[in-house]
Amino acid sequence: MKDSKRSTISGTELLIKRNGLSKTGVLLLITISLFVLLYVISSILFADSNFAKYSVFFNLFNNKAYLLMLALGLTVVMISGSIDISVGGVTGLVSMVIAAMLMEGRVNAIWTIPVSLGIGLAFGIVQGFLVSYLEIQPFIVTLTGMFFARGMISVINTKSVPITDKLFMSWSSAKLHIPFLYNERKNGTHDVAYLTPAAIVAIIVLILLIIALKKTKFGRSLYAIGGNTQSALLMGINVKRTKFMAHVLCGLLAGIGGLLYTLFAPSGNPGNGYGYEIDAISSSVIGGAMLTGGVGLPIGTLFGVLINALIERVVPLLGIVEASWPRIITSAFLFAFIVLQSVFASAGIKGGFKLLLPEWTRFRSNNKYRRDLKS
Amino acid sequence: MSNFSNGNKAIKPALKIIAKSLLSSRLTFSLAVLLVVVVQNIITTPTFFNISITNGLISGYIPDILDEASLLVIVTLGMTLVIAATGGVDISVGPVMAIAAGFCGLLLNGAEYRTEVFHSPYILALFVGLLGGALCGVFNGFLVSGLKIQPMIATLILFTAGRSISKQITHGQTIYVMNPVFKWLGVQIPGVPIRTTIIVSTIILILVVLLTKLTSLGLYVQSVGINGSSSRLVGLNSRAIKFMAFVICGILAGAAGLVGSSSLGSVNSGELGWGIEMDAILAVALGGNMLGGGKFSIAGSVIGAYTIQAITTTLYAMNVRADQLSVFKAFIIIVIIVASSDVFKGKIKRLSLKVFSKNVSVGG
Amino acid sequence: MDIAKHEQNSPGCIGEQCSGSGTTSPGCMGEQCSGSGTTSPSLTMTGIGKSFPGVRALNNVDFKLRRGEIHALMGENGAGKSTLVKVLTGVYPMDEGSVRLDGNPVAIHSTQDAQKHGISTVYQEVNLCWNLTVAENLFLGREPRTMGFIDWGKMNRKAAGLLQELKISADPTAQLDSYSIAIQQMIAIARAVNTECKFLILDEPTSSLDADEVKKLFTLMSQLKDNGVGIIFITHFLEQAYEICDRITVLRNGELVGEYEVENLPRLELVTKMMGKEIENLSDLNVDKDESRFEGEVPVMEARDLSSGASKVAPFDLKMYKGEVVSFSGLLGSGRSELVRAIYGADKAVQGQLFIKGKRARIKKPLDAMKQGMAYLPEDRKAEGIFADLSVRENIIIALQAKHGLLKRLTRKEMEKYADEYIKLLNIKTANIETPIKSLSGGNQQKVILARWLLTNPEFMILDEPTRGIDVGTKTEIQKLILKLAGEGKSVAFISSEMDEMLRTCSRMVVMRDRCKVGELTQAELNQSTIMRTIAGREDGNE
User: Fold this and answer.
1) Which of C394, C402, C410 sits opposite B235 (nearest CB)?
2) 3-class SS at C352?
3) Is A329 an interface residue toward B (CB < 8 Å)?
4) Contact between chains at C403 and B235 (C-beta distance less than 8 A)
5) In the beta sheet, which residues pair with residue C73?
6) Which of C58, C140, C379, C384 to mutate to test the interface with A (most CBs of A within 10 A)?
7) C78: chain A residues, CB-CB within 8 Å
8) Which member of A78, A92, B100, B240 lies 3.0 to 4.6 Å from B257 by CB, making a disulfide possible if both were Cys?
9) Does position A102 have pLDDT exceeding 70, yes or no?
10) Which residue out of B168, B334, B347 would a mutagenesis test of the A interface target, given it has the greatest number of A Cβ atoms within 10 Å?
11) Chain-centre distance of CA C198, in angstroms?
């Protein structure tokens, strides 16, 4: 890796560049290490829970494929400097709609796919429009979106609707075994790791997103407007359209997430998706995305989701039964990472530590009369 | 110039003056809405104005609305101050109600979840309940004034965690306070024909009005809400004033929690005050107050609160379900926010300029 | 002072002294040039006029920029500098006038048009993205691609080449924010230059730089100049203009004052042209200019080594005495407002000490200052002065109320009494005291804020541009009021952009230049020529 160079213009210039990895790199490293560490500790502490088995590891992917979609959507939106807290509501709505659709074999299960995507897109488009073109605070818009979604769920049905559709259930229980990853069970049979169709879809989307964020103009524009909206505008980026598309993409991913979730838990419960936005945000932030915008990597989000999955698995093993505890612990991690990011960002700056919070949490200045540059 | 244009020129200014005076009165808007709702009710319910005395209590449609609106009125008062001082909203008021009621119930029932005996003095329990509300207000105020977090996000914490906290206080159960004295606050003090809720909400209303008018708090809140920089330069402590607004809001939410749990005779952490924050925000907006902060009108907010309650009651009577109602309300909030957003206002202005300029060109 | 125009020859020739075909002197790039001093400006703006509702921002302004020259654009408040630049870069359409490039008329209707014609702008705030790499910032929007996807390898290589060419030491793959502001600014310039720009506009690029960083920037600018780029350097730093520029164009009140060669323009003349005063002595009013009456007295306010850090204004010492009017002069941006704000605590002091009547005072917030008897009328009344939706009455009593505190509320009667009193005293035109202040005219609003502070009965008043936007008659009223206050034993710090106002009322003048207090003038020194000289800074006006 490169060393600090001396300026050729003036020999006394001091570069603040870190040797090797950038700040983003270091944060990602922390995330990955955290996951590895937690996994290793878990396998040791709960040796009889088989953490060391391939299948268990892969089941983390399988069970949380939907969360990966939601979290990636959040990551995209957060990179652009915005936020979307309606994703949980959208997930629940999609699953309820699918359940209602598939009742009594009304509709061929194949239609659930376009419907899920459509619902997600609709939310994304409307919210994106309100946020970028009408310039309303994203938090308010998506909070209302969440209320709206939850309300729509109970409009459809207030009770649980189980899914019995054969085709759908076959997708839900499908397994793609990976032949060379197996462990021997005590009775001699092989416990082979597998991936569900949901997990495969999630991984494909992940790869597409990694490419898009790194190599397309849209992806780089997201980072630009998240880093400094004013500058991005002056550099010729269509800020409004980019922000709009970010929300649309997040909505689409939430729609996919809803579908994947329903595959995972085939039933339309009114409480579905409750709190998933918090999980999605935690996963993103733990994965290195900054609430303040401009920073985030899909691969980091993946590890954030894995950590979330791991905590969920481990907490019951510790004897804590109450359902809300995994989320509380993940939220604690979320807060810790926000503080960590703030420490990194404030390093070397006068004034020391400053808690970094995004634009949309801070006060919008009540002062509408800004000083203009005098000629 | 033709006669035609002269006629135009006379009509337009006259219309403008009428429109201006109508629009300038904030109360006009809220009163108009209230009027619409009342009229609609009168039409559909011929017995609307009937008042009778049942079980020693004055009852009828109107007293019922007044009674049901009491909680909302109390909470709306607090919300008005928060919105005026900060331009943001406190969405934790529902859970704070539950927390305050939880403290009160815990003290009154001790460890039992259903008892007729007060384990602590009633007044003390009420006080602790209010204190609980105040503490929540302190927490919110600190996040907003100290850490400079936007009010909606700061209060989001208690919004999500508040009811769980309340559950912990009541040891996970719904507490039933069977002692009849407990119901005095929320239902009826024996011998008094007016429902206590109405009395309490009126007293609190008067107290808040006195607070804002007899001290300079009202003026300070408005100043801070209108222009933070100017406030600072004239010697006002913006942070302290915003902090105070949240504490007051917390206390008022606590009071509403006490009254609410009393009217039910129980403390149900999950249900108490559910959804009241949306109603309160709507009430403040309906009352003609700018959601962006600054000048506020308590009268407007109170009218707004009664109006919202009237609308809710009317819709329930039409068999609209509670959860569907929240969809409806969410929609209204979005419409209000969009309509008051600067971008939207700008577009309307340009549109109306086009319309008016057409008139001018016609007239020459 | 104007450059004599000889026949233009071929495009590209900008030689000031060229001996003929075969270049000799630096700066001449002419392919075939006929000889001495042909100067064909490559960018010519002629007769530019631009009006906004109620104000004529530019009137018949000419501006010529030559390739390979650094040309300063200077002027005071309302001169029209930024408007001129915005017209050139397509942000505003011009009402009259024309723009020519190399003799050919061009129409610039948008920022993209400006870009196409090779005009790039770099603003005061570094308009780059901290979270992207250096290379990415250089190429954002124009990234090199392979098969539709961004080619990072190519981008990094191209970036490295560009940086090396401009001698900017930065690693293309490093994140932008790992470099200092100065380097970031140079990267911003590199980005602008990269788009085949022929003309670069730098809008106050040195405002946040320290001396070393300015040197680096100038080195880069010289390099660009050698490459034939024409640079417009907007600044209000006198010294810098003289250090790096070839020519200076001065604007005043939307009009062109003139274009001058730097080496032929003494500093004093420049300052005079910018401020618009001819060198003459004004007759004074009956102001007691005798500063010796303060000898031996304890100053009402004394600042030692005080600084708030705002806008890099240097720490200063200042004493003010009872019954004295001290005014502050200097070019726009010299830091006068920041200086007085540091005294009041509007910007919290980070260094130095403040003494009120001989006793050490710790002022952490404006209320502390108010309690010590200070008052501050801010420069920007819209943003920091008025409470737009509140009534005239409320705007008047608010400072006094703040002093009294939350619980001791002024009665309605008291408030009305005070409001009526001051409406009468200052002749404030309002329908009644309950009218919202936003419906008053600017001048009357200003009077209300003045009333607000007078009501607190201060001993030391700071007035920053109290007469801005006020009609002539009222201006005189306010000047008389200032003298009256001084007569009553109050001290007044008075900032105004009109020299005569200050001269009429003050007995001492503090002079500021380039964010530094450079002098104090009293008595006989209080005349325009001495003031100008002090602002300009050199005795003979030249190096």
Assistant:
1) C402
2) strand
3) no
4) yes
5) C234, C249
6) C140
7) 374-375
8) B100
9) yes
10) B334
11) 27
Q: What single DSSP character describes residue C37?
A: T
Position C179: which residue type? Answer: Y
pLDDT value, residue A344: 72
Residue contact A363–B148, C-beta within 8 A: yes
Whether chain B has a CB inside 8 Å of the CB on A156: the answer is no
Kindly determine whether residue B222 and residue C387, on different chains, have CB atoms separated by under 8 Å.
yes
CB contact under 8 A, B233 and C386: no
Residue C75 clears pLDDT 90, i.e. is over it:
no
pTM: 0.74
| Distance between start and end Cα atoms, chain C | 18
pLDDT band (50, 70, 90) for residue A4: very low
- The tokens for B315 are 């819709």
Interface test with A, best of B152, B335, B348 (most A CBs within 10 A): B152
Closest in B223, B230, B235 to C384, CB measured: B230
Q: In whole angstroms, what is the distance from residue C311 CA to residue C333 CA?
A: 9
Task: Enumerate the residues of chain B whose CB falls inside 8 A of the CB of residue A363.
Answer: 86-88, 148, 150
H helix runs in C64-180, sequence order? 81-88, 111-116, 134-139, 152-165
SS3 C356: strand
Task: Tell me whether 0.90 is exceeded by the ipTM.
Answer: no
Provide the sign of the torsion angle of the four alpha carbons C254, C259, C263, C264, taken in this order: negative
Taking the C-alpha atoms of residue C195 and residue C111, their distance in angstroms, rounded to an integer, is 13
Helices within chain B (DSSP H only)? 3-24, 26-44, 61-86, 93-109, 122-141, 151-169, 196-214, 217-226, 228-233, 238-264, 276-286, 298-317, 322-340, 342-363
Tokens representing A224 are 């630009």
Mean pLDDT over the full length of chain B: 82
Residues 6 or more apart from C491 whose CB is under 8 A from it? Answer: C300, C301, C320, C321, C322, C323, C324, C325, C326, C459, C460, C461
Dihedral sign of CA atoms C441, C447, C452, C453 in order: positive
Cβ contacts of A13 on chain C, cutoff 8 Å: 169, 180, 183
Residue C352 dihedral angles phi and psi, to the nearest 5°: 95, 180
Min Cα distance C357 → chain A (Å) is: 33
**Structure confidence at residue A214 (pLDDT):** 93
Question: Tokens 């290195």 map to which residue?
Answer: A288
Tokens of A210: 């990694």
A60-64, A216-220, B114-118, C374-378: which has the minimum mean pLDDT? B114-118
**Is there a contact between B327 and A140 if contact means CB atoms under 8 Å apart?**
no
Q: Which of A246-260, B313-327, C106-120, C232-246 has the least mean pLDDT?
A: B313-327
CA A343 to each of CA A335, B146, C176: distance values in angstroms, whole numbers, following the listed order? 12, 19, 19
- Please choose, from the candidates C189, C268, C234, C216, the residue with its C-alpha nearest in 3D space to the C-alpha of residue C79: C234
Which tokens go with B312?
């809710």
Which SS3 state, helix, strand or coil, does residue B249 take?
helix
Closest chain A residue to B87, measured at CA: A366
Cα angle vertex C48, ends C44, C50, to 5°?
150
CA C346 – CA C348 distance, rounded (Å): 6
